[in-house]
């Protein structure tokens, strides 16, 4: 990556500084504090599409997938499964790599990002990828992607105080989810499973704005006709947002997981921490403070993931 994309800048420096990303001894020592704990691994940011052309990008995805599959084989007591990488600047090659990763390497699903080098996921060119994942019957992990180049104010060239990360990523997730709903993705593929990072972004908290608020979709817009968007969906639009899964990677926040649990339901919340970029202990503590019954607790910690990933954890 350093050779291919020497100008990665801040994100590259940040990832190099997080040693447990590449030092397994450090990673395992951190995991040991939590007893019977295993991880589902994936590649971290940045999206491959942001720094490599399609030929190099798909090769990097293959290298990453082969390496993660090897880690799972070598350390089954540590890593329960892995999530494959793709490079959606080449959609056909990414669909083929997803099939290879799932059928030959044993990947439990595929990770994509909320935009592909600035292009939204509901564009027609990405339809074959979603069809391939529906055929494979494996989940898609949806990770936000946004940089400081997305400014907070038109008068400024960049986002300041890392708001592009703190609030920009949940916004990215929410917009991507909305675009996938309104383009009819779940009508075309009703059994498609998408796991949203950070407990569904802004969606659970803003269910009123999304539901009743968007019932008048188009009334605020004069230069584009949205009048037939909702009527072409087979169900009320808010229902589709509950088709998504959501993870608990909220940096140990006390309120977001509970809000997400109420919105998505106990069958759609899966345990995740963002480790080693996010904390394990505070995430567990936040879930334990919810006062859940044993059955719901097991669903969140491993049961839902077992069903979703088609993997038995214990």
TrEMBL record:
Domain of life of the source: Bacteria
A single Gene Ontology CC term: cytoplasm
GO molecular function, one term: carboxy-lyase activity
Residue ranges occupied by any Amidohydrolase-related domain in the UniProt entry: 22-310
Gene3D superfamilies for this protein: Metal-dependent hydrolases (3.20.20.140)
GO biological process: secondary metabolic process
Alphabetical UniProt keywords: Lyase
InterPro entries from the UniProt entry: ACMSD, Amidohydro-rel, Metal_Hydrolase
Protein's UniProt keywords contain Cell division: no
Name of the molecule in the record: Amidohydrolase-related domain-containing protein
Species lineage: Bacteria, Pseudomonadati, Pseudomonadota, Alphaproteobacteria, Hyphomicrobiales
């Amino acid at each position: 990556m350093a050779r291919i994309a020497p100008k990665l800048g801040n994100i590259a420096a940040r990832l190099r500084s997080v040693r447990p990303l590449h030092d397994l001894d450090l990673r395992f020592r951190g995991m040991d504090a939590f007893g019977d704990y295993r991880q589902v691994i994936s590649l971290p940011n940045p999206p491959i599409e942001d720094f490599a052309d399609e030929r190099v990008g798909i090769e990097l995805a293959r290298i990453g997938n082969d390496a993660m599959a090897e880690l799972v084989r070598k350390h089954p007591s540590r890593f329960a499964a892995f999530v494959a990488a793709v490079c959606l600047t080449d959609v056909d090659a990414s669909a083929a790599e997803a099939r290879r990763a799932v059928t030959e390497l044993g990947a439990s699903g595929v990770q994509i990002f909320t935009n592909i080098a600035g292009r939204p996921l509901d564009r027609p060119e990405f339809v074959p990828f979603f069809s391939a994942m529906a055929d494979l019957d494996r989940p898609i992990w949806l990770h936000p992607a946004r940089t400081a180049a997305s400014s907070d104010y038109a008068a400024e060239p960049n986002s300041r105080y890392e708001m592009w990360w703190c609030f920009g990523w949940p916004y990215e997730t929410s917009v991507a989810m909305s675009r996938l709903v309104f383009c009819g993705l779940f009508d075309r593929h009703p059994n498609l499973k998408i796991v949203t990072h950070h407990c569904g972004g802004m969606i659970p908290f803003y269910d009123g704005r999304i539901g009743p608020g968007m019932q008048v979709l188009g009334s605020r817009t004069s230069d584009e006709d949205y009048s037939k968007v909702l009527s072409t969906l087979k169900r009320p639009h808010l229902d589709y947002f509950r088709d998504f899964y959501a993870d608990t990677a909220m940096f140990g926040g006390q309120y977001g997981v509970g809000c997400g649990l109420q919105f998505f339901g106990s069958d759609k919340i899966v345990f995740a921490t963002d480790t080693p970029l996010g904390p394990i202990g505070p995430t567990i503590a936040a879930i334990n403070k919810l006062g859940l019954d044993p059955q719901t607790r097991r669903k969140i910690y491993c049961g839902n993931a077992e069903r979703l990933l088609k993997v038995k954890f214990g």
